[in-house]
Amino acid sequence: MLEMRPDCEKCGCDLPAEMPGAFICSFECTFCTECADGLDERCPNCGGELLDRPTRARALHARHPPSTERKFKG
């Protein structure tokens, strides 16, 4: 199951699990749309392809909570 990380690793903006607009690589590095576009859709951490992250319905958060660990280093 995907971690559904809560923020963009590059700019720190919030990326709620139930909303579109996040991109991930195969290691689940997570970036917002604007940052992914600026990265030519390649993960700067591993070089992998950044793809649209699926959304998780809010009704499923209690049973399958998204991650709360932020990865932005600022």
From TrEMBL:
The lineage of its organism: Bacteria, Pseudomonadati, Pseudomonadota, Alphaproteobacteria, Sphingomonadales. InterPro entries: DUF1272. This is DUF1272 domain-containing protein. It comes from Novosphingobium arvoryzae. It holds the Pfam family DUF1272. It comes from the Bacteria.
